[in-house]
Amino acid sequence: MTTERHEPSTTADERTMLEGWLEYHRQTLAWKCEGLTEDQLRTPSAEPSELTLMGLVRHMTEVERGWFRRVMAAEDAGPVYYSDADPDGEFHFSPGDTWEQAYACWQAEIDKARQHAARFGLDDLSEGAHARTGKRYNLRWIYTHMIEEYARHNGHADLLRERIDGATGE
Fold first, then answer.
1. Which residue ranges make up each domain of the chain?
2. CATH placement of domain 14-165
3. Tell me, what's the pLDDT at 45?
């Protein structure tokens, strides 16, 4: 599979621009993982860090799920990978965990995020509140935060990918 990345239009309206940049960063993370083996996707950056490309994808699965399902739509959607006993569970793999499963789960959460976001305007407040802050957020804030979250982690993905096979790129 080859991931195609498309930069958003330079003249789009605000919502189209925000959605476009979020999609671009989602595509960038997928691109950074492309063509690697299961072992390479599980390769940590450097001791003592547990950061891996597969872990980043699983982390972004949780982030998509948290902001769009739990906060925006007030859906009762518990965590996929982490727990109270293992708050960094997305970075801890069992032998049975696979890239195929992680990727499919991430894509399913992105699809759900798109569905939920389509029901709201940029100024609409979330139906739910953030578990830690107790605050409600408008969709504009969530989009902006998600772009920031992906951009930060795509920087991590750049470094991980370069360490794994020397591949570099934007």
1. 14-165
2. 1.20.120.450
3. 86
